[in-house]
Amino acid sequence: MVWKEFLLALKIVWERALEIVRQVQVNKEMLWILLPLLAAMFLLELYFSRYKKEELGWNSALANSLVLFFVGLNLCSFLYNPDPSKNMLYGFGSIKPELMEEAIKKSAIAFFIVFESVLLMLLDFFHLVSKRFAFGISSGLVLNFIGAISIILVRSDVKIDHITIPAVLLLFAFTVAFFSLLRLIFPSTEESEESEETETKAESK
C-alpha cells in the first residue's frame, strides 16, 4: 500500500517535471533568455570536465551571481512592466482575483532571485564565507539551473504548488547526474598528458 502511494506520488511529480521541461517548446519567447543560461551551464561543466584540477575562482563566482541578478531583474520587468504591448503577465494595473495568488507566487520567485543574487554577490565580493562553500553555492551549474527554472515558472502557466518543488528537485538531480556522468566519460587534459608521457617513456626505452 505504501509503495503504491509512493509510486503514485512519484508519477505525479514526474509529470509535473515533464510539464516544466515542455514549457520551453510551448513558450518559445523565453528561449531568448533561457538559451544563454543553458549554453553557459553546459560549456562551464564541459570546461571543468576537461580541466578537472581547476577550480571556480572568486571572480567567476561573482560573475555567476551577477548573471542571476540580471535574471531576477528580467523577471521583475516581465511581471511589472506597465506597457500592455509588451505582452507581460501582470502590470501595475488591477489584477483579477483569480490571478492574485499566482501573481504573488511569481512575484515571490522574482524577488527571491534578486535577493539571493545580491546576497551571493556580497558573499563573493567580500569573501565572507569559506572558498569551498562559496564556490559550491555560486557555481555555474547551481545558479544557471536556478535561473532557468525561475524563468520557466514565472513566464509559463505551470502551476506553482507543493508538487512543483519536488519536481524541480527531481530535475536538478537529473541535471547533476548528467553532468557527473559527463565528467566521468569526458577525457581531461591531465589524463591525456599522462598517457603521452607514458608513451614517450615507453618509446625511449
Gyration radius (Cα, Å) is 21 Å
Structural class: mainly alpha
Give the low-confidence spans. Answer: none
Instruction: Describe the global form.
Output: globular
What summary fits the major beta sheet?
A: none
Give the N-terminus to C-terminus distance in angstroms.
67 Å
Helix count, per DSSP? Answer: 8
Number of strands: 0
Q: What string gives the helices and strands in order? A: HHHHHHHH
Residue fraction in strands: under 5%
Helix percentage range: over 70%
Overview of the molecule:
This protein has helices spanning 2-26, 31-50, 58-80, 97-125, 131-137, 140-155, 164-185, 189-204. α3 (58-80) runs antiparallel to α4 (97-125). It has one domain. The termini are far apart. 20% of the residues are buried. The protein is mostly helical and 205 residues long.
Structure keywords:
205 residues; mainly alpha; 77% helix; globular
Q: How do you describe this structure in short?
A:
The protein is mainly alpha-helical and 205 residues long.
Give the helices and strands, then pairings.
Elements: H1 2-26, H2 31-50, H3 58-80, H4 97-125, H5 131-137, H6 140-155, H7 164-185, H8 189-204
Helix pairs in contact: 1-7, 2-6, 2-7, 3-4, 3-6, 4-6
